[in-house]
Write a structure and sequence with these properties.
With about 475 residues, the chain is an all-alpha fold. The chain has one domain. Helix 4 packs across helix 9 and helix 14 packs antiparallel against helix 15.
Length: about 475
């Protein structure tokens, strides 16, 4: 496993971001269309069943390798073959133990949430898919260490196309939850085949405590963070599923999924590249600072207007899209999730930066704080205010993002406000103007398109007007690296 110099790190990071954003734009568009059709064809209760069932299985992923995969990516020096093979062995043992545990608990889970037999089959299908997905971990690690994300995205393209094509067609045909069963199995099979074609790594069962001992020093705290994250996000959903019922969790899931759509488009790719990139820059804090500011600037430029636009057009989408009025009850909840998503966009990146810099114990304390707040505020406010209370809690918890900001500031005197300010101002101008002309735009599909085009023009014009020099500099730098 060769090492990259600083110039190569910068070049490959930019190329990886370009590859991920350009290709995931297509993938997210496919996912957007898929979810849109699903929320038309499926009832709120059926949507809630999938959220609960998938959350049960997703919890297993965070117990599958005790942080060794992350430690392999973060490690500064070359990887040894025995480290890779030992990591794979440990991961698969944990995966099989987890699958066995959920299989034993599947009947009680079915009774607890009131699933029918099809919901139980969905859990079994997700368990099979989970095992197949675990086989992709090591090939993905090998590509990510080299910042070869243009290859990482290829299996994702195949998976996304297969999943959405199957699930939409089957849901349209009236298969309901069964459409999820077929789609998740097909997606996992296609994904594992694709990645092993790209990275012909041969799995081998081999255990060596000595090989993974150094990895565990980073891996265990790293994975504890991930476990706390799953308790924060997924276990809270399971608790809420019982409090709110399947229909209530369906509305909550709809609101949260659409509110976080901008993060999937514009945050996931930079975060995925940032971890291995900043890990390679641990000894170059000056370059790490410039890269951090550069990343935050572009994240805010894309995420903030997308969230503002979502706030403005969702009421129109409810009116325009057939059978979509059933989600009207979740609009206020959706709006609050937009606020927490805006804060999370920056907080997530800063937390990722701390982890890459080796500050895994600090991140662990952050996760303990966020997990405690989530598991206490979410159920409490859900009982008091229903699914709207969950969104209120998400905003309150998001405000604690000041803590990771202060931790990063201790390491680097980076400029946060100067990099997010232009996007905030331009987004506010766009919102004010579009609200002012709202009465003149019809509540039709044509009016929806007019709003999107008009809002984009206002935002870009304002951004150029107030921040043209900095924008030009960043874009020029970005393009120069992308072409290298």
């Amino acid at each position: 496993m060769f090492m990259l110099d600083v110039t190569q790190i910068g070049q490959r990071a930019i190329r990886s971001v370009v590859a991920l954003i350009s290709r995931t734009f297509f993938l997210n568009l496919v996912n957007f269309i898929g979810v849109l059709f699903l929320t038309i064809f499926l009832s709120r209760q059926e949507f809630g069943v999938f959220i609960i069932a998938s959350s049960v299985v997703e919890i297993l992923a965070y117990f599958s390798d005790i942080g060794l995969a992350g430690a392999l990516i973060q490690k500064r020096v070359k990887l040894k073959k025995k480290e890779i093979e030992a990591t794979f062995t440990i991961q698969e043992v944990l995966v099989l133990l987890g699958i066995g545990l959920v299989w034993l608990l599947s009947k009680p889970i079915q009774r607890f949430y009131g699933f029918d037999q099809t919901g139980l089959w969905l859990i079994y299908a997700l368990l099979i898919a989970f095992f197949l997905t675990s086989l992709k971990t090591i090939p993905s690690v090998l590509m990510e260490r080299k910042l070869k994300f243009e290859k990482v995205i290829i299996p994702q393209i195949a998976e996304t196309l297969v999943f959405n094509l199957l699930i939409v067609i089957l849901a349209w045909k009236g298969w309901g939850i069964k459409s999820y069963i077929v789609a998740v199995l097909a997606r996992s099979i296609v994904g594992v085949i694709a990645i092993y074609i790209l990275v012909p790594w041969r799995p081998r069962i081999r255990f060596s405590l000595q090989a993974v001992k150094s990895l565990l020093k980073f891996g265990i705290p790293y994975q504890v963070n991930s476990v706390l994250a799953v308790f924060k996000d997924k276990v809270s959903l399971l608790i809420l599923g019982k409090i709110l019922g399947l229909e209530g969790i369906g509305i909550l899931g709809w609101a949260e999924k659409w509110a976080n759509l901008a993060l999937r488009y514009f945050l996931d790719a930079p975060v995925k590249v940032a971890f291995p990139m900043f890990s390679r820059l641990q000894h170059k804090l000056g370059k790490a600072k410039r890269s951090l500011e550069y990343s935050i600037y572009f994240i805010s430029v894309f995420v903030f207007p997308a969230l503002t636009g979502a706030y403005l057009i969702m009421p129109q989408i409810i009116q325009v899209v057939p059978k979509y009025v059933k989600w009207q009850a979740g609009v206020s909840t959706f709006n609050l999730f937009l606020v927490s998503a805006a804060i999370a966009a920056i907080a997530t990146f800063l937390t990722n930066f701390l982890t890459a810099m080796g500050k895994v114990k600090q991140v662990l304390l952050l996760m303990v704080m966020w997990t405690g707040l989530t598991l206490s505020l979410y159920p409490w406010l859900a009982i008091k205010m229903g699914y709207y209370g969950v969104a209120v809690a998400s905003v309150l918890i998001a405000l604690t993002a000041v803590v990771p900001f202060l931790l990063v500031r201790k390491m680097l005197r980076f400029n946060l406000l100067g990099n997010i300010g232009p996007a905030i101002v331009a987004s506010l101008v766009m919102m004010i103007v579009l609200k002012a002309v709202k009465a003149f735009v019809p509540m039709t599909m044509t009016g929806l398109i007019i709003n999107v085009i008009l809002g984009t023009g206002i935002y870009l014009g304002t951004l150029v007007l107030i921040n043209g020099r900095q924008l030009k500099h960043h874009v020029t730098t970005f393009l120069s690296y992308a072409k290298t």
